[in-house]
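User: I'm preparing a small set of examples for a lab meeting where we compare how different chains pack in three dimensions. I only have the primary sequence for this one, and I'd like the structure in token form so I can line it up with the others. Please keep the answer compact; I'll paste it straight into my notes.
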Amino acid sequence: MRRQKLMDRPKYFTPAEVAAHNTAADLWVSFLGKVWDLTPLMEQHAGDVLLLPIMESAGKDISCWFDPETKDILKYVDPLTNCVRYYTPRGRFVHVPPAGPRSDWASDIGQPWWRDERYEVGLLSSKTRWIRVINTLTSQEQRLQVCSEETLAEILQRYLRYNSHACSYTWKHGGVSLDMSRTLGENNVLDDDHELTQVRLDRDLFTPAILLHFNDDLTED
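Assistant: Understood. Below is the structure token output for the 221-residue chain.
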């Protein structure tokens, strides 16, 4: 049941994770709180000059392109024609119609890519934070940047790349076992970034530590 709930939740990404996908062969962007994988769009329209504005923004947040209320590309009234046009200061891009009638424009494109849910891969974290994960068995320590919206179970998935046996440990903070179905904040692992910035203290010196205690099954009856 818990695994099913985890699968039903949207996946959260940090801005750094989005930024890593910054080539034409692997292109992600984020906007209005969502993360989009536009790699299939790049493949479908390979060689099209209308891909250039998207390629220039690979791995970046492009929320400034959109009206947050309509979820559509920003529009303006052309002072010369008094017609409503899409506002694309970086140049017209794929699925944005031309300014005037053109014989080479196919208007039956269906859903434009920014409304096509097939490209959505998850949500952009509204606040990332750093934690230290310390294995008390080996004394190994790993710093992780995580999303504040993630549960401990989802953070565990991030940590598996450093310790494939992480599921065999009890996760604790301040001597208290953490509820893996809850977020760090819900487990009272507080995020003091704002307060530390206000008093001009180095946040890296106050990164909260999560201690992993190995579950030794041989001690159980």
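A couple of notes for your slides: The mean pLDDT is 88. The CA atoms of residues 130 and 204 lie 8 Å apart.

User: Perfect, thanks.
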